[in-house]
Amino acid sequence: MKKLLKIIKWGILIALTVIVLAFTEKKQGEQLVQLNQINIEISEDQFLTKNIVLQYIEKHNFAYDGVVLSQFYLNDLEEILLKHSAVRKAEVYSNQQGVINIKLQQRKAIVRIKTAYVDYYLDEDGLEMPLSKAYTPRVIVVSGDANQQHHASIYAFIRKINESEFWKSQIMQLHFSGDEVVLIPRVGDQKIHFGMLVNSTEKLDNLYQFYKQAMPVKGWQTYSDINLKYKNQIVCTKK
C-alpha cells in the first residue's frame, strides 16, 4: 500500500511539472518582447549610448517590436552587437515576461594614429579601432611615418605613459620620423628627441629629473630641443 501511494505521489508531481512547463512554454510563445534596459559599463569614453545602440540594432534589421519571446534569438543579437566597432563585450538575456536586457562593455581608445594616409585609434588591447562620429576622446596623437609595424612599441609606450599622471598630462603627441620619435609636450615648446621607443623608463626618468632640476633654473623657454637619444645623458639646444 505504501509503495502504491509513493508511486501515485511521484506521478502527481511529474504531471504537475509537465503542466507547469507546458503553461510556461505557452506563455513564452505568446509573450511579446520588450527591450527594457541597455547597461553600458561606466567609462571615460562615450562611444556608446542607449540611442546609438538602438539605432545600430535597427540598422541591422533586427526586429524586436511585436516579436514573441519564443522567436527572439538572444545569441543572434549578441553577435550583431559584438560587430559594433565600440563594443568589447556583449551579454543579452531575458526573463519569462519577455523583458530583454543588454549589457555592454565599451572598447577604450588609448592613442590615435593620425598620418597622411590613415586615421584610427589603438584600444586598450592594442587593436585598431575606427573613429567615431559621435565621440572624440582626448588621447595622445601619433603622427608622421607611423605604421602598423610600430603598433607594438607605440602600445607599450602609451601604457607606460598612462601609468603616470605627470606624463599623461605632459605628453600630447608622438611624431615619427622613420623609426625615431619626437615627443611634443603640452607645457613648453621644445622638441624632445626620444630616438627609438626603447629604454623608455630610463629616458623618461632622465627627462623628469631634467624638468625637476634644470627647468626651474634655466626657464621653460630656454631650449628649442632636448635630446634623449644618447645613453645616460641629455643634450640640449638653446634657442
Comma- or semicolon-separated keywords:
single chain, 239 residues, alpha/beta, Ubiquitin-like (UB roll), Rossmann fold, 2 domains, three-stranded mixed sheet
Notes on the structure:
By secondary structure, this protein is an alpha/beta fold. The chain has 2 domains: 31-106, membrane protein fhac (Ubiquitin-like (UB roll), Roll), CATH 3.10.20.310; 109-238, Cell division protein FtsQ/DivIB (Rossmann fold), CATH 3.40.50. It contains 7 helices and 12 strands. The chain has helices spanning 2-30, 50-59, 74-82, 151-162, 165-170, 200-213, 215-218, and strands at residues 34-40, 87-94, 99-106, 109-114, 119-123, 128-129, 140-144, 171-177, 180-185, 191-195, 223-227, 235-238. The strands form 2 sheets. The chain has a 9-stranded mixed beta sheet. The protein has a 3-stranded mixed beta sheet with strand order 1-3-2. A hairpin with a 7-residue loop joins strand 11 and strand 12.
Could you please say which CATH topology of the largest domain applies here? Rossmann fold
Mean pLDDT: 84
Main sheet characteristics: 9 strands, mixed
State the low-pLDDT regions, or none.
18-29
* Helix content bin: 25-40%
Summed up:
This protein is elongated. By secondary structure, the protein is α/β, with parallel strands linked by helices.
Provide the fold topology.
Elements: H1 2-30, E1 34-40, H2 50-59, H3 74-82, E2 87-94, E3 99-106, E4 109-114, E5 119-123, E6 128-129, E7 140-144, H4 151-162, H5 165-170, E8 171-177, E9 180-185, E10 191-195, H6 200-213, H7 215-218, E11 223-227, E12 235-238
Parallel strand pairs: 1-3, 4-7, 7-8, 10-11
Antiparallel strand pairs: 2-3, 4-5, 5-6, 8-9, 9-10, 11-12
